[in-house]
Amino acid sequence: MARPTSAFRCTECGWSTVKWVGRCAECQQWGTVVDAAEQTGIVRSVQAVTPTAARAARPIAQVEAEHTAHRPSGIGEFDRVLGGGIVAGAAILLSGEPGVGKSTLLLEVAARVASTGRRVLYVSAEESTAQVRLRAGRTGALHDELYLAAETDLATILGQVDQVAPDLLIVDSVQTVSSSLSDGLPGQPSQVREVASTLIRVAKERSLPVLIVGHVTKDGSIAGPRLLEHLVDVVCQFEGDRQTALRFVRALKNRFGPTDEVGCFEMTGDGIAEVPDPSGLFLSRARTVVSGTCVTVALEGRRALPVEVQALVVSTKAPQPRRVVNGVDPSRVAMIIAVLERRAGLGRLGEHDVYVSTVGGVRLAEPGADLAIAVAIASAMRDRAVPHELAAFGEISLAGEVRPVTSATQRGNEARRLGYTTILDVEAGSVRAAVERAMMASASSRERELDAAF
Q1: Is 102 known to sit in a ligand binding site?
Q2: pTM of the complete model
Q3: β-pair partners for 86
Q4: Where is the RecA family profile domain (predicted)?
Q5: How many Cβ atoms from other residues are within 10 Å of residue 121's Cβ?
Q6: Residue 140 among known ligand-binding residues
Q7: CA distances for 127 relative to 149, 271, 415, 438, angstroms
Q8: Whether CATH 3.40.50.11810 fits 71-274
């Protein structure tokens, strides 16, 4: 006969365990783990309730869907990520690191929507109305249909919604709003869960789209309970490096559109501006060809972007040569160097320091950039410049083979559209053949330059 076990559950996040512990392993709160029987009490049967005519189940083909169509926000890149625009009654969560520009983006969205005649309520729980007004004046986001409130109490925010009757609600942010119906300080899992569930319920009942700003933890995940991401309809992540002005918006979850779209923005002194064609942001502006450079075509969502990879090889007498990378995976660079030494005939790389970097601060995490990194290192090693019209993309195996990558046709079409006539891809066969072909193209380009000079 099986021995009965008693379950214990956390009152803050719902984490369960078979034995009592003093600290919850999920939300790290002390004294919140109690016996599940004590927490739930006596189990009572639920009586069935007859639904009203308005809520009666109907065939799916008879359900009207016209009012749930996408409505453009006025920012094309943001609409691209959302799948065409903002859906009525949708709950959208936008997360990102501090200072990346979340509030600036949503303030611009609010101004664009208000300019179309729809009323927008922007609730700031982190800044005063004067501070938001100052930023709106700098970015040109002033409009009569844009209402501003600085509130941290959930009940007061709901009162503002009743009074203003907006067509779009923006709450910045969910971790700083508290509800009197839940215990704890703002930002704790119970408070975040209560505030988010209430805002989502209001959005569904009134067909009111709600944009919610969410904080992130030090490891990059959204702060608060994981339930928050399950409750909302769309989860967008705002990414960007503080050292560069480029910003990306990615859709991690989207019930109304694709999740592989990426929106590109640029932070300027006047606010945030969308970049519909970022093809030239990751290429150097050097007019003369220089050894150690090669262009690859990377995929950001469904968008193909040309990225220039630069390499520098310097001889050293140190027992352990340096391998310094920026914007690429260090382990993949080490693997490519080993393949070049063993399979491509570059046997003296172990006596040189190798530096690899990307232009524009972009990060290449996909294996499709392996071939461009290999060509750039070989070009720097042999001190032979690769011509400007050459692009390379492909994955390199340990056997020295060039493997195909996803969306190769789209990458090739984008490279040809930008003027790259010589493309190194899976047709090269091996990394040795690709390197030799790049060196031959370099020699041909040098001969054409000499003929043009004379």
Answers
A1: yes
A2: 0.75
A3: 71
A4: 67-216
A5: 24
A6: no
A7: 10, 17, 45, 55
A8: no
280 is in an annotated binding site: no
Q: Does the annotation list 109 as a binding residue?
A: no
Spatial distance between the Cα atoms of 417 and 331, rounded to a whole number of angstroms: 32
Does the annotation list 101 as a binding residue?
yes
Confidence at residue 198, expressed as pLDDT on a 0 to 100 scale: 95
pLDDT of residue 276: 82
Quick check: bond before 173 cis, omega within 30? yes
345 is known to lie in a ligand binding site: no
Tell me which CATH code domain 293-453 carries. 3.30.230.10
Under 8 Å between Cβ of 277 and 283? no
Residue 278 annotated as binding site: no
Element (H, E) at 195: helix 189-206
Mean pLDDT of 208-221: 88
- Amino acid identity of 259? T
Element (H, E) at 221: none
% of residues, the chain, pLDDT over 70: 92
CA 205 to chain centre: 30
pLDDT of residue 35: 79
SS3 208: coil
The pLDDT of residue 87? 93
Does residue 430 register a pLDDT over 50? yes
- Asked whether the beta carbons of 347 and 255 are under 8 A apart, the reply is no
